[in-house]
Design goal:
This protein has 130 residues and is of the alpha+beta class. It has 2 domains: 52 residues; 64 residues, SH3 type barrels (Roll). Helix content is 45%, strand content 24%. Helix 1 runs antiparallel to helix 3.
Amino acid sequence: MIKLWLSLTLIYLLVFTAAPVLARSRPRPQADSVEQIKMKLERIGIGEKARATVRLKNGTKLKGYIFQMGANDFILKDKKTLAPTQILYNDVERVESNKGHSKAKWIGIGAAIGVGAFLAILGISLAHLD
């Protein structure tokens, strides 16, 4: 009987203490300076494989690849429509590289691992109830 209560207590602690920690939101980072933006764009590169997400100071979010870089601006082309957009470095709040999984995909993977661990613990505790 004590094993049952210990198992249930462990499950409760794992589920209800980990969820608030995982759900905590991070504060929004400050806008990058023009030099930092240029350095990030140079690291990403130029061409169809140089995919980026650009967030402007007016709240607009643009996705595409970096087609050309100049001294005061750069050109971002939409991958689907190939429509070029000229963007001044001063208008950019933040630049992010698009190489890898999205945040939603990582959250889904983490949730699946959590549910699997919960079911494994539940199964083990039920098997030891004899």
